[in-house]
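step 4 of 6: structure.
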Amino acid sequence: MEPAAVIFYILASIALLSAVMVIAGRNVVHSAIYLVLTFLCVAAVYILLRAEFVAAVQVLVYAGGIMVLFLFVIMLVNLKDLGAPGVRVHATVSGVLGASAIGLILYLYGRTPLVADAPMQAVQLRPEGGNLQAIGVALYSDFLLPFEIASVLLLVAMIGAIVLARQKY
Amino acid sequence: MPVPPSHILVFSLLLFAVGVLGVLTRRNAIVILMSIELMMNSANINFIMFGQRLHAMSGQVFSIFTIAVAAGEVAVGLAIVLALFRNRDTIHVDEVHIMKG
């Protein structure tokens, strides 16, 4: 097995384990830290997939901005222990149903692979100037309108968050 | 990358499943938002993997849009959590059933 493949499997297992820890832990701060670990592993997978710019954005936006936001709110709401609610019927039923759905999908995948399963060769998606320039060209030519709409969306989200979190309204 | 694409698909499927499980089982609103982030990440992995597979740049561009939408969603969601905590003094979603019929 090639080194990149080994690295991918290690990263994937770390990401999955820490994702499980996110939803399994009782302490919300620990969940946030494990979420950072998951994001960093996913960013490393992006680098393996030759999407360096998206990996950088992932680290900056997710592991930087979004996690700071999460930690701020965790500190602000001053969590009391939510109390172990014991065995809940809904949670058990949904867990069993979800696990069987995943099992079904994996079974179907084993019967009919979704894509031709040759290992991907190292594709060069970089005309010149690297991945960043290619993304920039695509973003400002083919995807100009969605790009502007995304900026409007961020503005709306910012105003909405300010209005919602105000003391009095 | 010398890994079959389907293995990456299975990885993102499992990540998505963990996120769904978190949304369905946890009752803490902040943890539910974190699980939604996990699901968005798995969708991003799919975008980038298929973009690479089909030699198209649009996969990476769309994943950047997804990240932007996720940032806005988290900001609004956490503001809602804050407002909820101010008004009801809890972020336990089972105790917030004022709109239940």
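step 5 of 6: annotate
 - Chain B touches chain A through 70 residues (CB under 8 Å).
 - Chain B has one domain: 5-95.
step 6 of 6: archive
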